[in-house]
Amino acid sequence: MLEYFDPIKDLGTKAILSETMIALEVDGVSISVPEGTSVLRAAALLDINIPKLCATDSLDAFGSCRLCAVQIEGRRGYPASCTTPVSEGMQVTTQTKKLAKLRRNVMELYISDHPLDCLTCPANGDCELQDMAGAVGLREVRYGFEGENHLSAEKDHSNPYFSFDPSKCIVCSRCVRACEEVQGTFALTIDGRGFDSKVAAGKDQDFIDSDCVSCGACVQACPTSTLMEKSVIDSGQPEHSVVTTCAYCGVGCSFEAQMKGDQVIRMVPYKGGEANQGHSCVKGRFAFGYATHKDRIKEPMIRDSIDLPWRAVSWEDAFSFAADKIKKIQAQHGRESVGGITSSRCTNEETFLVQKLIRSAFGNNNTDTCARVCHSPTGFGLKTTLGESAGTQTFESIRQADSIVVIGANPTDAHPVFGSLMRRRLREGASLIVIDPREIDLLKTPHLNQAIHLQLRPGTNVSLINALANVIVNENLLDTDFIAERCDTAAFNTWKDFISQAENSPETSETITGVSAEKVREAARVYAKAANGAIFYGLGVTEHSQGSTMVMGIANLALATGNLGREGVGVNPLRGQNNVQGSCDMGSFPHELPGYQHVSDKSVRDKFEAVWKVKIDHEPGLRIPNMFDAAINGNFKGMYVQGEDIAQSDPNTQHVEKALRSLDCLIVQDIFLNETAKFAHVLLPGSTFLEKDGTFTNAERRINRVRKVMPPIAGLADWEVTLGLSKALGYEMHYDHPSEIMDEIALLTPSFTGVNYDKLEELGSIQWPCNDEHPLGTPTMHVTDFPIGKGNFALTTFIPTQERSTRRLPLLLTTGRILSQYNVGAQTRRTDNMAWHSEDVLELHPHDAQERGIKEGDWLGITSRAGNTVLRAKISERMQPGVVYTTFHHPGSGANVITTDNSDWATNCPEYKVTAVQVEKVSQPSSWQKAFQISDKKQQKMLRDPQQMDASE
Ligand code: SF4
Ligand code: SF4
Ligand code: SF4
Ligand code: FES
């Protein structure tokens, strides 16, 4: 069979999946292609390149430009090859004098209304219009340029990243179709008719004021320089490119970093990337400027106290300063008095090294990762029920889903490229069930079919999932064959007895969740009766006191309905950060070595000890919250934090700050002076994803290559920094390249034994498990059995959180993310993404606002039992009365000053999603915010101006 997908060449129209092959001849050359393929694509597969303008292989064919006309034996006229499907025995001719004339005429009309400024145009050399003019041999334009034209149409520069110059537009509508078909936003239209037709954003607004979310799909699709990256306009066309992986979210999009020397000119989504297939969002596509931002830490720095100015030193001096301090602490306070935190933004190889350093050089298991505060319940819940701590599907699998359940996730903001794929499936007719206290944007998807929103009260997830299961059991919607064949019978029977009890009925649940029993019944039927039901969930599931219980409740639902082990179904955690799956896989947790192998298992330790040549502690170490408590109690004195801003991202900020202040040595490795670094004694410059080699693992378990496109700004990549520190601590590790680290990972991790860099080059990416049994990886998990043999139904008794609204604190605060910002915002706040979200605000329902006399934009004091902060009001119908919402992208907002240290019973994952608060109008920042501003100013000054800093200031 011919190549189905070409990552480089534009084959003109989309690939068609069909078993039936059709044979035809193009210019006398035979070819067989799947039924439904266009003539244009069949020819392109033979390297017969028919001129085209309105067609591109990421979009449905449109047939407007007529440039792709061909002759077909037995047919009259000159059909457009992009909209003509192949048929058996078809004889196509692509080059005749008549066709050449026809195409020249078409081009002539286009060019007669187009500026003739090719030599100074930013697209010069990368313009399909220019190419096609050459391809059809256009040499003159007979119509002159004097008549009516669009040459003086006004430009729109409102978007920070791309310009719109309508004078260059040929109204091919590729941009409009890209916005609809690929992105699913429908922000663009063709306004007017005939000569007056033009591309319009929103209601003929500037791009920045329209619904445009700046994904860049239209820019990518535009065959002219009408829609063009400003970076290309400013710096010229790139000269070379390197394929790498986005370092923002867990979708793991592949990009071509298009370069001029060491300068990134633009990031272009890579068609060959299996997670994104040529699509992108505003972060990966445009927000890369932070990598060269002036705030980057460029030299290692040390200081004896956090109240003293920093001293810039050599790498060697920084390593020995840090190592001396750690050794002294351990000599005085014991081996367990130090620990470290790995990064979910760094590569697998780097994370592996940090936990190895902690286990080998520190000699304990005091390692943890930010997944503690996001997806640790996923690990516990999925391992207990399905036997593996990971999502079960590929993203692409959603194309087969008939019912899509989204629980506590906001894919269009937090996982935008997957959100677009989801929207595409919803437009194709899949039904949608959203379980969320807020009305998320997915519910506003244009051309949505059936949508059910179960708008529950925060903190009541488990009651709702139990009620859904109750309906499935009581209405006999179970997949009894799947249960009999694939699940543990005793566990199922116990669960069935439990779940059918009245306490789990939709009626009882209604009194807890606020969602009507009837709606729950309807949703349960839609999910259970669908041929394929797929569940996707996010931090709105895990970040609760019953996060692990809820994950198990979700897995129970999938087991009960047989929605596992094939395409279109499954249980899929949407991972927040780029490598949160990888950081968990790589042994970041205190109880597990890489590959989720428990430290108490002697045979596992023997294996690692033989390779690492050290004794590994058999006791699990401290989790992050335990490290904080131990620090405050004086038993924990030293910490190595790589690429993680715990001072901003962890709950109960004042508690975290107290813990960090208690440390004798805090080593922070980061690209900026983040909030945690303000409490540090050693600051080691980090490197961005552009400055190193390695791999990230996305939410589909897909291991993607990260490739170095520029040298590390401070001289060393993150993995090299860990090697230097480890050596100074007396435990030397030898690797010349991250590929050697991956070889060691493969040696020690059963699910990675078949992974190596050569195979990654060959296959593009690999979904683990990849081993002898699955040499090419595993796109769909649990096809024939579970790693624990049979699927295990878990009992999921609903226990209300202690964090409840009271008379004093009558509202419930829940938190989340926004499209343009990422996590603690350290990267995106240093880009033009600030145009969309320059501050965190508090969203509240008009009813709650009115009750308190609050108007849009008022300053609001928000008080919880942990603390208080001040944010501006945003009045929004998306909230239900009694529930307020904010994001945590700006450190000065203090969102985590108010979140409490309640946490998941099994994993200590903080309950970010439920905080009882009161809200009132205020006129000045909170005392924490005032103190933050003073401290920030002081720390920035100590960093930038160490010589003149007065230590007593
Ligand atoms: S802006 Fe570009 S893609 Fe859109 S209609 Fe004009 S030329 Fe075509
Ligand atoms: S950038 Fe994306 S959302 Fe905005 S108009 Fe273009 S395709 Fe639509
Ligand atoms: S969806 Fe995620 S991985 Fe893809 S470009 Fe956006 S931030 Fe990057
Ligand atoms: S490319 Fe076929 S009509 Fe435009």
Characterise this structure.
By secondary structure, the chain is an alpha/beta fold. It is 30% helix and 16% strand. It contains 30 helices and 34 strands. It has a seven-stranded mixed β-sheet, covered by helices on one side. Helix 13 packs antiparallel against helix 16 (506-513). The longest helix is centred in the middle third of the chain and has 19 residues, at 315-333. It is globular. The protein starts with 20 loop residues before the first strand and ends in a 9-residue tail after the last helix. Residues 948-953 have low confidence and may be disordered. FE2/S2 (inorganic) cluster binds at residues 52-55, 63-68, 80, 82.
